[in-house]
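User: I would dearly like some help making sense of a protein record. This is the protein in question:
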Amino acid sequence: MRPGTRMPSEDLDRMLTSFWGPGAARLGGSGEASYLVLPNAREPRYIVPLQPAGAAGAILRSYPGMRTLGVRWQRQAVGAAIGERLRWTLRADTVTVDEGEDSLIGHLRWRLDAADLAVAVSFGRRGPNRKPVLQLWDPARRRSIAFVKLGWDEHTRALVRNEARALRALDRPQAGFRAPDLLLESEWRGIAITAITPLPPDASMIRGAPPEAVARAIGRLEAPERETLGRSRYWRALRRRLDACEGSALHREVAARVRGVEARAGEAEIPFGAWHGDWVPWNLARSVAGVYVIDWEHHADSVPAGFDLLHHRFQRAFIARRRSVAQAVGRVELEASALPGKLDLSAAEAATIAPLYVLEMILRAVEASARGAGVNKRFLPAILSVFDELVS
């Protein structure tokens, strides 16, 4: 990348090189393909197109119902500043690229048969799952035509491919909820691509209690069954996943806890079914067309019943409210005590399932670390002692 006004972050530099090739992008300047990096090149969270006029503001103002009030106001202010040609007040950086057919954007235009589109890029929160997500915008119709997830390392490639598999299986109408349609599953120079249809413009995040009927419907995507934990498909798969992490940080500590759970609860019979895998408010939306469930990267069959409802409680506490991991696990215990009134399981089964959910989250973090994606230091290693206390 040619010298610019300031050094970009590693993620931004990597994105520019991956999307457009070495030397095709530069910080600063202006041209037929220029982008604004928000808040700046050192801490990129969102990249919006400066051409055609009006696209950036329209993209930033889209899906207001899926944002918190603070983020909504922030996006409206930034969009207004760009529209009034006051973007200098944002202290943001610009990127100018030499676009061509031999680029990721050119590949998407060809595969989606959408020559005239504007592209915005979201990086999301820092963490093991961080990856670029593109919002493809049709300037003529002033609406989004697709969201595109890009897996650019071993860990995020696995997530993006798993979402494509899940959406292929959901390509028929579901009872009680809607999922995005899979528009494209592709590979481009080592990047895994999953393109999906956007939410309806009126979609609004379901911020309160999750729709339990939808959680039950997702659980039934695989025929529910009861199995002995230690001989279940789930437990065999969990052991294989753990074995694949051998040699990574914390493998031994987690393996010891898996053996402990098997010794204590291996003969327990519990119900199993499918789960969404990331059942959180920001992945649940309501529209006049119905309830939408998005972001199926962690979807799996044959997991203990109730995992999605426990996950919702944990993530609301740990991510949305920034509670400690011990406090978040406390919310899991509370939700587990309520599961018998929501699902077809007993209090004893719910008490067995709660530690299994926490163990699942520990293994998920260890898998990400083993793939080189890093760890959330708020989560690991603190969760290990919290788990020990939960099962003691």
The chain is about 40% helix and 20% strand. The longest strand covers residues 143-151. The chain has a mean pLDDT of 90.
